Amino acid sequence: MKNKKLISIILTILTIIALTACGNNEKATALSDEKTPTTANADETSETEVTDMIGRKVTVNPGSYKKVVCIGAGALRMYSYIGDVSLLSGVEDIDNTSLSERPQMFDGVARPYVIANEEVFSQLPSCGVGGPNAQAAEAEKILSCKPDIVISEYEDADKEDALQEQLNVPVITLKTGPMGVFDDAFFESMNLLGEIFEKEDKAESLVNYITKEKEDITKRTSDIKEEEKPSVYICGLGNWGTTNHLMTAQNYVSFKVANVKNVVTGLEADGVQEIESEKFVSLGADTDIMFIDAAAVKNIKPLYEEDPSMFDTMKAWKEGNVYLEMAFNAYYTNYETALINTWYIAKTVYPDKFEDIDITQKTNEVTKAFLGKEMAKEIFSKPASFGGYQKIDTNSFFK
């Protein structure tokens, strides 16, 4: 009897404990439900409004995006600097080198973002043709890629709004300014991408790196007296298909950053433009150093074959002080290349100030900062790089 009573008492106690625990769990669950928002509410509270680079207000949900499409010249390049390329759900044909039918005018040029991500891009469906002749977004192709956000460099606000309404996903427009890689607008575009994709640290790191690089170059050259500076001419700037030895700029950004004396002055406007042949001839006697952007070689060569005397009035050509910089404008600006070019120009014009700089090592450093990979070998091996940065042999280069 005693054992039975003892067992009964124990069972009663256990039942009471179990019931008490269940009650507490129900209360805890209820409290938890009151304090924790639903998934929908959590999503709503994480939404924020950003202003894109052409002033449009767009509501985004930072860090939530799983399918990204980039459209327009330079958009995919800039996204590649900050975003995760594995999130891309489509790519323009011009950036998919596995396609046989696509714009191929830049295939021989070093576009580092394509080189670095060629395998990823080749696996993606088309979100449009892309390229210089594609002046409008292809909404149907974009829709077929099922993006949940679009990064664009089409700068017509009304068209961007219309595209956003048609796609029913945020369309974020990026933009840079006249100073290119050194422009505040480029920094703002990087930071905007960092905010949207929760890569703020990466964006800040890149902006800080570029800023320090610029400061280093400028500081090394800031104390050079004007009368001690050689006069320098840069040509081959502008559009890939039209540039030649007459295409130049009196406000060339790399010259400004490196305190280089530009022999071209007195033009009515800034920016890349073609000067008259007479102007080119008149500059010749004062030009100590000449830089040719690799983009122009394909156009200059037939001109030189037709008239081998075309550079005879150029002092730099006659004295063999002609140098090749890498093409930095191919489906818009290669920003890392523009930075490397600035180092190369500064080192060439002021060698004593940059004895510690090896341009191949600097190329690897810069591409790693931008794209996470050392890429000097790949860049210099592209056909339109002609082996990389070099002093041109004026007796044979264009023959």
UniProtKB/TrEMBL annotation:
<comment type="similarity">
    <text>Belongs to the bacterial solute-binding protein 8 family.</text>
</comment>
<feature type="signal peptide">
    <location>
        <begin position="1"/>
        <end position="23"/>
    </location>
</feature>
<dbReference type="InterPro" id="IPR002491">
    <property type="entry name" value="ABC_transptr_periplasmic_BD"/>
</dbReference>
<feature type="domain" description="Fe/B12 periplasmic-binding">
    <location>
        <begin position="67"/>
        <end position="353"/>
    </location>
</feature>
<dbReference type="Pfam" id="PF01497">
    <property type="entry name" value="Peripla_BP_2"/>
</dbReference>
<keyword id="KW-0732">Signal</keyword>
<dbReference type="InterPro" id="IPR050902">
    <property type="entry name" value="ABC_Transporter_SBP"/>
</dbReference>
<protein>
    <submittedName>
        <fullName>Iron complex transport system substrate-binding protein</fullName>
    </submittedName>
</protein>
